[in-house]
Amino acid sequence: RIISSIILLTLLSYFIYEGAFLFNTFLTICFFISIKEWFGLTKKKLFRLLGVIFLFLSFYCVFLLRNEFQNYSILLFVLLICIATDIGGFIFGKIFQGPKLTKISPNKTYSGMIGSFILSITFCIIYSYTISFVDFKTIFLLTILISLICQIGDLFISFLKRKAKIKDTGNILPGHGGLL
Known about the structure:
This protein is mostly helical. Helix content is 77%, strand content 0%. The chain has six helices and no strands. The longest helix is centred in the C-terminal third of the chain and has 29 residues, at 136-164. The chain is globular.
């Protein structure tokens, strides 16, 4: 999981900075994989439609950050915090274990949740000293918000996987349970 995250972040960094064609191609592929995974989770037409709209808006925001606003630093920051949140939760949850966070996802623990925030804040501090695009208070609050949204999104997808009675939405990212 950690290795695939590092490879993904390196690949995304290259695509973000190297050129719009590579990035847009990669983004489009990820978008269609996400739709396929979403359709595997949902059976009702309304939920499928709402999911596709949500995914489109999400991917479109990423597209705008890269291509229209050309704010590579912010885009890379958001991706870095999302990945740090995931890795922090995984590492701290495995090491410290402890009480379960929710029945929705039995592998999620309070220590994992805290670890998600700790690692994302650590990366926030490192990132803010290397490439600062706003003041530290703003970037810190942004980090907390992004990490929280990542964790809620992870729990939501776990909830949908339980409802659909599937373990993973896909196998394209080893150890992640799918692109979603």
